[in-house]
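Now for a typical sample entry:
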Amino acid sequence: MKITRQLCLPLLLTGLLASAVAAPSTATARTGGAHPATAPSPTVRTAVSRPSADDLRARIAAVPGMRVVKENPAPAGYRSFALLYRQPVDHRHPGKGSFEQRLSLLHRSTDRPMVLYTGGYDLNTEDSAFRSEPTRIVDGNQISVEQRYFGTSRPRITDWSELDIWQAASDHHRLVRALKTVYRAAWISTGGSKGGMATVYHRRFYPHDVAGSVAYSAPNNTDNRDDTAEDRFLRQVGTPACRSALTAVQRAMLGPRRTEMAGRLARWAADQGYTFHTIGSADRALELTVLELPMLFWMQKEEADDCGTIPLPSAAGDALLTWFAVKTMLGAFSDRYLALMAASYYQLGTQLGSVSFAAPQLAGLLRHPGIQEMRTYVPRSIPLRFRPDAMPDIDRWVRHHGSELLFVYGEVDPARAEPFRTGKGSRDAHVYLAPRTSHVVSIEKLAPRDRARATAALRRWAAVDSPTA
């Protein structure tokens, strides 16, 4: 009874992380799972101390384990470098081997704050000139990190047991310590969705690495057996008419039009060069994506009347499948993309937890029990053993010891069904809700008072002055 940057599929996740963070659209496009937030840059900027080209490159290259791959085009006032940093496969036993972690450095000045940014996945779609919202707010440098076992940041032989939240947090810790020899001003960390989760996990294990953290749209699944919060959220979000329209489409696609839609999906997949061997069949892929439709719809909801675009159950087959393929990011369920995202599903199935929708509105129409479980996404050759103690430990740390934390959620985003919450032991930690906003949220989208408070906290942690009028 359970329900992830555009190539990410599950955490509210069977559908959450996967679909919000990284799932490709039908055109196989990916938007970065980072929050390309719209906050304006500060109106007051300090002068940029700019080492000579050779001096800066030499200083970065002199960091033990760091390799400068190339210099990329950058915005005015910045320099951008593609880097590789050698990390141990196992931080407890460095002699077991190593891999090179891919990084992207956007340099403004060694005197400015540094922002440690992660989208939670690979760097394949990151623009070398991309600046996260906190980077723009503090007018700082930014180091973007590809997570271990994603993209090219993986050892030649994959030992899946070394992919856990502590090892990934230790990658960040080791990188921060190395780069602080060059960037000595305050450090801030940030990320969105799965990247927001990784930001929190890093702080839990290494709370003093950075002066503060901003986590956007970060789910907090503390009990993988209980998904009632997600079911309850989807029963209440939006208007009754909108929820009813989604239900009608679901029932039609798994009811009287099932054979037709499964056939259309199979033909569409063949045209795109997609296969569904991991999930099992076009019919299984149809049932899985129909189950996730409400979550994915609300995660992508814009302020415009998206509800008015929901097709009628009787809509022409091509139109219905086209709308459905866009909303559910159908290509993300194919073998090609599941292989690229194997590390994400492995994490969901071993520590992060996933969500399975109860879907009583589809009673009598479901044929594939357990299809929402993580095993559906992960080949049988990769072992999955869930460790239920990992997420409660993170949650306890936030509520009892977490400090200098900002959690930002969107009002209509299913990720907030199980959010991070502060507690009596939290210090200078805040949770904000952006009205009428979905999964791609930002401080800029907060109500004016909350936006001012969040921005002030971030500037305070980064030790930078507020802009003047």
Observations:
- The chain has a mean pLDDT of 89.
- Strands lie at 66-72, 79-88, 98-107, 114-118, 141-145, 187-192, 212-216, 403-410, 427-434.
